[in-house]
Amino acid sequence: MCHILLILPLLALPLFWIWPLPLALSVYGAVLGLSATIYWYAIRAMRQPRQNGAERMIGAVGRVVIGELGEVRSQLHGELWRVTSTVPLRHGDHVKVVAAEDAALRVQKLDTGAMPTVT
């Protein structure tokens, strides 16, 4: 469906063979306006930053939840992620995501003095 919308100006060219020139020009102008609007929204949507995935989590603050078999996980934005850290983490520690590596997030432990709001 979206590909048809992208070639809509080309599909409207036969109007010039079927209809009189003034009518064909007005209809073709409307088709061009509609196509330009669709192109503008499509380009704007493609330039938006990522809204999901590990890259979106960089800078997020979460709380450590110890999983099964000693695996460390952290709750960020309502999701559980496998995390790695250079310092030992305990259940309930607040962490900030500093990088995304493979299928895990590298986190930094936050001080307990400045407890941020966990999202």
Number of domains: 2
What fraction, in percent, of the residue positions are helical? 25-40%
| CATH fold-level name of the largest domain | OB fold (Dihydrolipoamide Acetyltransferase, E2P)
Tally of helical segments? 4
Shape: rod-shaped
| Strands side by side in the biggest sheet | 1-2-3-5-4
How far is it from the N-terminal to the C-terminal residue, by CA?
A: 38 Å
Could you list the spans in which at least 5 consecutive residues all have pLDDT below 50?
A: none
> Class of the largest domain, according to the CATH hierarchy?
Mainly Beta
Rg of Cα set: 26 Å
Q: Which CATH architecture of the largest domain is right?
A: Beta Barrel
Strand percentage: 25-35%
N-to-C SSE series? Answer: HHHHEEEEE
Task: Please state the average pLDDT score.
Answer: 82
Structural class: alpha+beta
Plain-language structure description:
With 119 residues, the protein is α+β, with helices and mostly antiparallel strands. The protein folds into 2 domains: 2-46; 54-109, Nucleic acid-binding proteins (OB fold (Dihydrolipoamide Acetyltransferase, E2P), Beta Barrel). The protein has 4 helices and 5 strands; from the N terminus they run ααααβββββ. It has helices at residues 2-6, 8-11, 15-18, 21-46, and strands at 61-66, 72-76, 79-84, 94-101, 104-109. Strands 1-2-3-5-4 form a 5-stranded mixed barrel. It is rod-shaped and about 80 Å long. The mean pLDDT is 82.
